Amino acid sequence: xxxRRKFILVKQFDHAPxxxxxxxxxxxxxxxxxxxxxxxxxxxxxxxxxxAYIHKLPVGSPMNGRQVARIVESKSDxxxxxxxxxxxxxxxxxxxxxxxxxxxxxxxxxLGDLPLSLSLxxxxxxxxxxxFSFVNICKPKAxxxxxxxxxxxxxxxxxxQVAKMKGCKVIGITGSDQKGKYLTETLxxxxxxxxxxxxxxxxxxxxxxxxxxxYFDNVAGEISVxxxxxxxxxxxxxxxxxxxxxxxxxxxxxKVSPVQLYMLLKQxxxxxxxxxxxxxxxxxxxxxxxxxxxxxxxxxxxxxxEGFENTGKAFIEMLEGKNLGKAIVKV
Length: 331
Known about the structure:
Pfam family, one: ADH_zinc_N
Main location: cytoplasm
Structural class: alpha/beta
Low-confidence stretches: none
Helix content: 25-40%
Family: Belongs to the NADP-dependent oxidoreductase L4BD family.
InterPro entries: ADH-like_C, ADH_N_2, ER, GroES-like_sf, MDR_fam, NAD(P)-bd_dom_sf, PTGR1
Number of strands: 15
Subcellular location: Cytoplasm
């Protein structure tokens, strides 16, 4: 009988999460039934959305999240031993599932020489998010100026690179010069603005003297209000995240300056995006991103934390902006 370890929520987060809000428990797993398989976690994903939805989890619930796992036992013809799957299997070391069952698993296709961990990044949910949200909502055109907030994160860095492929001028908003230099020197962004330096608006105007046509928003808050202030007529905004408010009380979100005046005067278009609506098209974005990687048009970056017991730490550091690219835990 297999014993699994899993993280459970022992206290609702009060603003920023603490490692003591979580604990590891152990439990025995039952024998497999026909059609089921047992998989063992290889990589766990930590993502900003987990913080946004934590209030929906009752105390005692397992921490939700996606993982790459290896099938170690199977009574399923389709999910055979040795195959790797991606599933919403929570923060736990072992999972019993089936076709269409717990975690909605799918088999990882042949990635060639690419790291398996990319199945949680550019070849996974963040890549799927970037692929469908940016093009469908922002509708970029060659020569336009694109601003991406959270630009060095899992989704933002992909969006910026895709924008460059579309012939756009790309400005990344990030929280350090180290990240900014990575965006410009490695990923090909045209420029970056470090919002932590205290003169964000002045630097944004310098970077976009002709205004901003599209804004891919991962952070919300006053940063986004400032960006909207400098957008051009009929600008498009994709609201993909609201990281600036995730550590606040869900019932008392932070107050920010109103955006309606800018929306009215500039006739801006803004639409929110949820990755769930495109979950069934994961292989479409995966195949396109694999091709771009092979062609040298798309680069990937990961911040990998070693050890299952350090998953909470990795989650907290990701929310603090200490990661570059996709934050992942190697079990």
